[in-house]
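Dock adenosine-5-diphosphoribose; give full complex structure.
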Amino acid sequence: AVSVAAELIRASKYVVAMTGAGMSVESGIPTFRGADGIWSRHGQPSANSYAEWLDDPDAFWSSERRRRLEPWVVELREALRHAKPNEGHVALAEMEATGRVNSVITQNIDGLHQDAGSMNVIEIHGSRDKMRCVDCGDRTPRKTLFIDSPPPPCEECSGRVKFDSVLFGEPIPKDILQAARSESDKAECVIVIGTSTSVKPAGGLPRIAKANGSKLIEINSSETPLTRSCDAVIRGTAASALPS
Ligand code: APR
């Protein structure tokens, strides 16, 4: 399967990698839906978290303060704090440097692709290191780890500011969604790494690319709903499969 995948990559003029939580497992960050996934163990946040934030930011931020002490939040925050890129992130950055991969669309907010040297990275679910105004889209560096009261209004438009990472029910910012769609439209091959593809619109991009004639390569430690649509399946971890 590795040689089939390598041949597909070599034969494609434009290659896009799409990554999910499985990409960062070997960096110590747990997944969401696997056996020991965070949502599997602690339940998934409400599907309309974004509507709750819009409706009552004060209530949202004070529940953030309470949530901060929950074991899974502490676990995830510590994992994110200590996480370093793994061999998979490094291999993907090298593939970009040697022209084998053109861009990375990641659902992860951990910034590890950039830390490993990937240059063309689209963070479709945002970044944990940024704040974003939902009214004008302006992004600014996140200054504090803990946010337990509504951040000051946007300096550009006095709009409503939240962390950049998207909440369930939050529309993907237009600029990001357009960039991700244009990458998957250009792709002749999409390498789908460490994602259950269960969250839309991100999870739909490989299917759209396939419909446009793109080849699909799956790198995942287990089966996913996308597996049967893939042209090559490497059943293994991101940290071992990507270097090979
Ligand atoms: N290497 C490769 N794949 C792995 C590894 C590994 N070491 N470990 C687990 N996986 C696979 C699992 O088999 C699963 O298919 O990674 C995938 C993780 O799936 P999810 O936990 O659903 O993570 P993801 O697909 O990124 O979730 C999408 O959901 O909660 C939202 O915004 C959040 O970005 C996230 C989105």
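Observed: The beta strands are 15-19, 103-106, 121-123, 130-133, 139-141, 161-163, 189-193, 215-220, 232-235.
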